[in-house]
User: What shape does this take?
Amino acid sequence: MSLSKRFAKLRVDDADAFDGGVPTELAPTSTLSSIQQQVQAAEQASAPISLPVTAGNASEALSALKERVSHALYERLGSRITDSSMEESELHQFVKDELKTVVDEEQVPLSTGERQRLTREIIDDVLGHGPLQRYLDDPSVTEIMVNRADQIYVERHGQLFMTDTKFSNEEALRKVIERIVTRIGRRIDESSPLVDARLSDGSRVNAIIPPLAVNGASLTIRKFAREALTVEKLIGFGSLSPEMAELLRACVLAKMNIIVSGGTGTGKTTMLNVLSSFIPASDRIVTIEDAVELQLQQDHVVRLESRPANIEGKGEVSIRDLVRNSLRMRPDRIVVGEVRGGESLDMLQAMNTGHDGSISTVHANSPRDAVARLETLVLMAGMDLPLRAIREQIASAVNLIVHISRLRDGSRRVTHVTEVQGMEGDIVTLQDAFVFDYSAGVDANGRFLGKPIPTGVRPRFTDRFVELGIQVSPAVFGAQPARSR
Ligand SMILES: Nc1ncnc2c1ncn2[C@@H]1O[C@H](COP(=O)(O)OP(=O)(O)OP(=O)(O)O)[C@@H](O)[C@H]1O
Ligand SMILES: [Mg+2]
Assistant: This one.
C-alpha cells in the first residue's frame, strides 16, 4: 500500500502521533491479541501473515520518511549547517529551499497539512533544537534536563516534571548537541566529551556524552530569563521582604563585600544580578563569569568571560586570571559570577585591599557552610596558607552572607542574612540578622507563609550606614524578633 493511501486510510489525527519525538499511541489490546492469534495460526499453517495497519505502522512510515528526508537534507547542507559566519535568517532560508527540493525528490504525495508538519519538524530538528524546541519556546519552562534520548525532564514554577517527549534516537540528540556546540566554535567528541555552551538567546547549556555519560548523551539547559528577575519580582515571589530589600540596597551602597550562598539552582546568580542593580551608576563595574549570565543595567560595565583550553589544551583563561587582570582595570566594584576554585583567594585579597563593594556567589548549604567552602576554595589556590590565616582573610574581607534556599514548596527564599563579625579564637564569628520564619506554617497549597524576619540583633554594619549618611527606615529592624535557627 502506498504511503499516501495509508495516510488517507488511517487519518492520523493526533499531531503527536506524527511527531517522531513523541510516543505514539499503542495499538489497542484487541488488535494486539488478534495479531498474536494470526501469528500462531500462521506458524501452524506456515502461511504469510498480513498485519493490520495500525497508527503505529503509519507513524513508522512517516518517521521513516522524515528520517530519509532529514538524512538527504544533511547530505545537501554539508558543513554549512554549522557555519557560524552565516546569519541565522540566511541559514533558515537556505535550509527551507534545500528541504523543498528534497521533499519534491521523494515524490510522496502529501497533503498540504502533512507537508507543513513535516517541514516544521525537520526545520526544528535541523535548525532548532528538535523536540526541545517547544520547551525553549515555552516561557513557563525554566530548565530542561535531558537525561538520555528518551527521558526529558523540565522545571516549571520551581518543580520538576518528567515529560513524555523523546528524541527519536541517540543520534538525533547528538545532532542537537553538536549543533549547539559547533555554532559557538566549540566541539564535543570522544576526546572532549563535556562542554559548556550558550544558546544564541543566552541560555546556559551543559552537554556530556559517552564514554563519560554512561547511559548516552545528556544535556542540561538553564533557560535565559527573557526578563531579568528584578527586586520587585523577588519581593512579589516572597523570596525577599521589602524591608530586607531596603537593607540589602543600603549594604550595597555602603560598599560592603557580599557573598550570596545557596545550593544549585537556588537563585544565586539572580540575586547577584539584583544586588548589582543597586550599584550606583557612577561606579565602574567589572563582571567576571564563566558564561555570561548577569544582565546589569548600568552603563559603566566591563564584562569578562573565561575561556576553556582549545583542542591542543592551550589558551585557557581562567576566572582566576580574570580576577587578577581586573585589578589593573581600575574597578570600583568587582562582581564575580561564582567562586569555585583558587580565584577565591584573589577575590578575598581584592576585597581586603581596597576593592570594597565586591560581590560574588558560592555554592553552600548555609552561611556557616559558605565560610567553610571559601576556606576549601582558598586552599585550592595552592598557596599552602595556614588555616587561621585563611579564616582571618575571610573574616576581614566578607561583610555579609545572603543565603538562599529552595524550600519544599519549590519557592526560592532568602533564609539568612548573616553578618560576618570577625574572629573569636580560631572561629569566624557569624551573626544572623534575618532568618526565615518557618513557624508561620504553610497554606492550603503547601506554600510556606513565612518570610525572612529580623532576629532582633542589630548588625554592627549599621554604624557604617550612619557614617555614610545612608538612611534605613526603622521598619527594617522593627518587626517582631525571631529566634535564630
Ligand atoms: N526568587 C526566585 N523565585 C523564582 N524563581 C527564581 C528565583 N530566583 C531565581 N529563579 C529562577 O531559578 C533558576 C535558577 O536561578 P539562578 O541561575 O539564579 O540559580 P543559581 O543558584 O545561580 O544556579 P547555579 O547553581 O546553577 O549557578 C532560573 O530559572 C531563575 O529564573
Ligand atoms: Mg549561578
Summary: Residues 1-36, 38-53, 479-485 have pLDDT under 50 and may be disordered. DSSP finds 17 helices and 15 strands in the chain. The first helix runs from residue 3 to 10. Residues 78-117 form one domain.
